[in-house]
Amino acid sequence: VEFNLTAQRQQVDLGGAAPTDMFLYNGQLPGPTIEATEGDWLVVHFTNNLPEPTNIHWHGLVFPPDQDGVPMDVVPPAGKRDYAFRVLPGSAGTYWYHPHPMGLTTMQVAKGLAGAIRIKAKADPLPAALGDTLVLLSDLRLDAQGQIPPSTTMDKMNGREGDIQLINGQRPPVLPLSLGESRRLRIIDASAARYYRLQARDARMVQVGTDGGLLAAPVERSELLLVPGARAEVILTPTGPNAALFNLPYDRGVMAMSTPGSGTMGHGSHMMPDGTMMTMAASGAAIPLLQLVPTGPPVTAVTLPAILRPIAPLPLAGAFERPIVLTEDMMNLDFRINGQTFKADRIDFQVTRGQTEIWRLENKGDMDHPFHVHGVQFQVLDRDGVAVTPLAWQDTVNVRKGDVVRIAIRFEHYTGLRPFHCHILEHEEQGMMGQVEVKE
Ligand code: C2O
Ligand code: CU
Ligand code: CU
């Protein structure tokens, strides 16, 4: 399957004071959805019409490193390149694409560059009657002139959040769905830093998939935490008249400027180089994200299959346990992995293709960090010693402040360099990124 993608600068009327200067794929917010079936060859003809370098990263898919838009592998302004790779059998699921150029990623995503990828199964266990709706979550910040302002120092610390929350580029979104009618949603957190603690009200939410496709069996959820970069597939069924999907407050440890003399330096407080003190910020209110609006009379719910697909645990016998420690250096606005900030010419460690390792992710900072690895799907084993269930394929996992999360990871198919990083894009750009080399 072939697609043409052009990143272009465009003036869009968003109802602000003036048309907003945006960066868009093919002039669309979000970019066009890329659809393929597992086993297909995917070819993307890419043109960069931006005034600055960019590239495309295929978040979550397993494909050769030389087809990945990684920080140093960019397309110059007016440049073109083709990305081509096979979508591996068994990889049916929800993915997304976004730019990844060194030092420019956050602002390019903030200006609108992101799109969904839907990889369909050869044989899908979920009934077609559930439909298939993409829900791409992003946010936008506009200044008084209706423009997308550059990141502030606070953004560099906390990650950049926009106050306007969008679903598929729209606000406020509604989904026509009758009482009892079930709909399959593929939810993508494509925002640069925003966490979504999703809660269905007057509706039933059943999770059927994660980053790397379906779970082994459906799981009923009262809440679901989606972190930047991550995806979830859910079946949503309205059970009452005010059915909606809400985003609840979640404390990920963001800092705010504290008024002088308002308290003592405690855990979670930082003195900045200019003497201002930062403390944990209070989180906001529950926000209705998606309203489910009945279109017809109540219907009978579709019965979900009890089993979706087999997920085999990665073999752990003899697996090397690799410590990966996340730290924050607020004085220098550095975010580090194993004590170091990212260097493009440094390989942080090597792994052998086909060998399972356990990565022990330890967050010694005061903020949550969503840890992501390119070109692989891993399994989360435990969090602070407590087993994580059910078994699932993920490429992004939240490491909460103080947590130790262990993941089983195996690069099965390709050798080469793979970045791993915090998916709060400002943290990635402030150093919280490394590279693993997969050797034969
Ligand atoms: Cu969506 Cu390097 O990540
Ligand atoms: Cu990625
Ligand atoms: Cu982070």
Instruction: Indicate the proportion of strand residues.
Output: 35-45%
Radius of gyration: 21 Å
Share of residues in helices: under 10%
| Structural class designation | mainly beta
Which cofactor or ligand species appear? CU-O-CU linkage, copper (II) ion
Unreliable sequence segments: 261-266
Distance between the termini: 30 Å
Quick check: average pLDDT? 93
What does this 3D model show about the protein?
- The protein has 440 residues and is mostly beta strands.
- It is 4% helix and 44% strand.
- The chain has three helices and 33 strands.
- The chain has a six-stranded mixed β-sheet with strand order 10-9-12-17-14-15, with no helix packed on it. It has a six-stranded mixed β-sheet with strand order 24-23-26-31-28-29, with no helix packed on it. A five-stranded mixed β-sheet has the order 11-22-18-13-16, with no helix packed on it.
- β1 (2-12) and β2 (20-25) form a beta hairpin.
- The two termini are 30 Å apart.
- The structure holds CU-O-CU linkage (C2O) and copper (II) ion (2 copies).
- The site of one copper (II) ion has 6 residues, from loops.
